[in-house]
Amino acid sequence: MSIIVETKDLTRRYGNNIALDHLNLQIPQGAVYGFIGPNGAGKTTTMRILTTLLLPSAGEAWVAGHAVVKDRLAVRRSVGFMPDFFGVYDAMKAWEYLDFFAAAYEIAPARRPKLIDDLLALVDLSHKRDADVMGLSRGMKQRLSLARTMLHDPALLILDEPASGLDPRARVELRELLKELRSMGKTIMISSHILTELAEMCTHIGIIERGKLLASGDVETIMRSLQPHRTYTVHLLSDPAAAVETVRGLPHVLEVRALPDATPPQIEIDVEGDDQMVSELLTRLIQAGTQVTHFAGQVSNLEEIFMRVTEGSAYGGTN
Ligand SMILES: Nc1ncnc2c1ncn2[C@@H]1O[C@H](COP(=O)(O)OP(=O)(O)OP(=O)(O)O)[C@@H](O)[C@H]1O
User: Fold this and answer.
1) Which residues have CB under 6 Å of ligand 1?
2) Which residues form the domain of 52?
3) On the CB side of 176, how many CA atoms lie within 13 Å of its CA?
4) Do 187 and 110 form a contact (C-beta atoms < 8 A)?
5) For position 276, which CATH number holds?
6) Three-class SS of residue 113?
7) Residue 22 Cα, ligand 1 centroid: separation in angstroms?
8) Which residue has the higher pLDDT, 75 or 227?
9) What is the complex's ipTM, to 2 decimals?
10) Which residues form the ABC transporter domain (predicted)?
């Protein structure tokens, strides 16, 4: 997978305040990259640098192979940016809003009507084509804003807190839309300080706090590397007490317990180690005559991981 966004020791100061501190970030092409961090962590600063709206104090960044400081126009052609506010002139209709920005992108007038109709259809706003933008709901404004980021068909979309302030239905609609954009081949970088907003839609995550990247990578690897042990749930047809005895004391098994009154009978095993260990554990169970119908690792959610990682930093732990 090629890398579409890369930063190297990216640093930004505001006076004495360091907003970004040697940030080294990589986003693979085609990813939905969730950029997660508490208020003031440096998310917007990073996004504004990547979209050429802000200069770094030190370090470098590239978008689609173009350097953000030296090759600003090429970067702008590759990126669509949706800021965390919806700025627009009053009394503009939805189609006029898109037409205005299409003109700014120097899209030929003859091409615009079809492009605008296609984008309004994509974001499910065809029926609001002639509505005043100021009268649209927040969710609709977000979708219109997203359509605007797509006008020049950029490879990368950078969306700053797009889900904030949306009601649950609008959030689901946004998530569906992002899925569709991804299937069109777009790479999407999306920020939030609310993890559950991102959990279901991201392939990769980066966790940022006080201008430092604490963790970054594909969701599964991050979850695995940040979990000191994993818990496996085993459903059985046979006696759970016998299964507990089989497993107890094996290397890499930290703890095992039968779940009383569970239907079907179940045990839980806390395992330390890699997939090889887990596979050997299952083999031992089967060899001992245990009748297993289900064997699965429990996945802790992004929220838990985020709390663990950021707590480590706040208390001076290593990351
Ligand atoms: N124009 C500015 N002048 C001075 N300090 C700034 C400016 N913009 C941002 N900062 C500071 O830089 C740090 C990072 O801010 P940034 O807006 O990038 O964080 P964020 O993660 O996007 O936060 P939020 O979730 O609140 O939007 C904060 O300490 C903020 O106060």
Assistant:
1) 14, 17, 19, 37, 39-45, 193
2) 3-90+143-225
3) 11
4) no
5) 3.30.70.100
6) helix
7) 16
8) 75
9) 0.95
10) 5-235
